[in-house]
Design brief:
Elements lengths: L2 E6 L7 H16 L3 E6 L5 H12 L5 H8 L1 H16 L4 E4 L1 H4 L1 E3 L8 E4 L2 H8 L3 E4 L3 E3 L5 E3 L5 H12 L3 E6 L20 E3 H9 L7 H10 L3 E5 L11 E4 L13 E5 L2 E10 L4 H11 L4 E6 L6 E9 L3 H13 L7 E5 L2 E7 L9 H11 L6 E5 L2 E7 L3 H11 L10
Parallel strand pairs: 1-2, 1-9, 2-6, 3-6, 9-11, 10-12
Antiparallel strand pairs: 4-5, 7-8, 11-12, 13-18, 14-16, 14-17, 15-16, 18-20, 19-20
The structure holds adenosine-5'-diphosphate, aspartic acid and magnesium ion.
Magnesium ion binds next to loops.
């Protein structure tokens, strides 16, 4: 008998019929003797709808109130799921994040979980009750409702699994595991039986939305056994999904490249003809940091005749804010530059694999594949297990497809 946390994403609970189907799966596990904590997301499209309502009333709604609105999506699905379970003759009880007491910091719309009180959940589990906890939400020390950022139910589930020392955290979604890339873009993408924690962390940070990055970080910190599975298969299905592993073992697939991620949420800001002098990076990025804007890639060209060009990328939502902050800094005399320009129609494509540590030539293979399709690379960044390029947004799907083919990701790797 195991303690299992199961998370069901928006499509998995997207209709009353889907909620019934999730209840059937939960019953199947319950009848096998497992103790279950279930974490649903809001119904598909609901969080967007709720945030859209707030945006109709204000161009920049108060983040505290946005959280009050957005958190209702999950309050609906916990109640509905508990009702569906009770209809099957099971004992079930729902809790909002505040009721469990999922304590977070006060960073509205992107709060971090600080602590989880497991007392009520443990008592219910002891009594044979299925516990249904709202994903995506918590409460701060002042009693304000908070949310954990888009896709945050994954993080709720992994954090609950860590707090309860669950035997496994199962993320049920609309695909049957983690693929070599988004199967909606590349139909030949292959499901991975396992993926290392480091690779999953890198894929998630580079834009693979199958798991929210913070959920992967949590799993790594508390060594939560994390698995991605499909909620669309029969409950009796023995499909293993994808297991995130923490150790490299010799029997594992030995792929050099494990996957390709892409991200359309970025924008590029360039400061052209800026003085090439000590302190210039700080003069440009200081105001960006002060405006609380995260910077991803940074490129500074080689200077010529005392001047250089400096570019960096930010989240697309913060593009205008970044350009405005720089224009203000220039006007205030922090730096001199010929021009501040930007492009919010860029995308980032990243290839990820731990095999990069021991193989050379992967970057040139990537660049050749893109060059053969006439795709211009605007920026490049690398880490030990990743090569990322910024390209024009309109080529992102083509780039992902040609790279998937160039690295032969549709083929299973030779085992060691
Ligand atoms: P949920 O609502 O269940 O949380 P998401 O839409 O957040 O589901 O995440 C699942 C989606 O992630 C899939 O439908 C797929 O389109 C996308 N995706 C992106 N990259 C990958 C990948 N490497 N493997 C599997 N799915 C991926
Ligand atoms: N409902 C939230 C969202 O759409 C959280 C989640 O689905 O994980 O972002
Ligand atoms: Mg998700």
């Amino acid at each position: 008998m195991a303690l299992i946390v199961q998370k069901y994403g928006g499509t998995s609970v997207g209709s009353v019929e889907r909620i019934r189907s999730v209840a059937r799966r939960i019953e199947h596990f319950h009848r096998q003797g497992h103790r279950l904590v279930v974490v649903p997301s809001a119904m598909a499209g609901e969080t967007n709808r709720l945030l859209g309502l707030a945006k109709e009333l204000s161009v920049s709604p108060d983040p505290r109130e946005l959280d009050v609105v957005a958190a209702t999506g999950e309050q609906v699905t916990i109640g509905l799921l508990a009702i569906a379970l009770q209809e099957r003759g099971l004992r079930a009880k729902s809790y909002t994040g505040a009721q469990v007491r999922i304590l977070t910091d006060s960073a509205h719309t992107k709060a971090r979980i600080l602590q989880i009180d497991d007392a009520r959940m443990r008592a219910d589990l002891e009594a044979g009750t299925i516990v249904v906890v709202a994903g995506f939400q918590g409460i701060d020390e002042h009693g304000n409702i908070t949310t954990l950022g888009r896709g945050g139910s994954d993080t709720s589930a992994v954090a609950l699994a860590a707090a309860l020392k669950a035997d496994e955290c199962q993320i049920y979604t609309d695909v049957d595991g983690v693929y070599t890339t988004d199967p909606r873009i590349v139909p030949e993408a292959r499901r991975l039986d396992t993926i290392t924690f480091e690779e999953m962390l890198e894929l998630a940070s580079q834009g693979s939305k199958v798991l929210q990055i913070r959920s992967v970080e949590f799993a790594g910190k508390y060594l939560v056994k994390l698995r991605v599975l499909s909620s669309f298969e029969a409950p009796e299905s023995t499909s293993p999904g994808t297991l995130i592993t923490f150790e490299e073992d010799d029997t594992m697939e030995q792929a050099i490249i494990s996957g390709i991620a892409f991200n359309r949420d970025e924008a590029k800001v360039s400061v052209m003809g800026v003085e090439d002098r000590p302190g210039i990076a700080y003069a440009i990025l200081g105001p960006i940091a002060q405006a609380n804007i995260d910077v991803d890639m940074i490129v500074q060209n080689i200077g010529a005749s005392g001047h250089t060009d400096f570019s960096f990328t930010v989240h697309r939502n913060e593009y205008q804010k970044a350009v405005d902050a720089l224009r203000r800094a220039r006007a205030a005399g922090s730096f001199e530059a010929r021009e501040i320009i930007g492009d919010n129609r860029i995308a980032k494509v990243s290839v990820v694999g731990i095999g990069m540590r021991s193989h050379v030539g992967l970057a040139s293979k990537m660049f050749k594949a893109l060059a053969d399709e006439n795709i211009n690379i605007q920026m490049i960044s690398t880490s030990e297990i990743k090569i990322a390029v910024v390209i024009d947004e309109k080529y992102v799907e083509l780039a992902v497809r040609v790279l998937h083919k160039a690295f032969e990701l549709e083929k299973a790797p030779q085992s060691a």
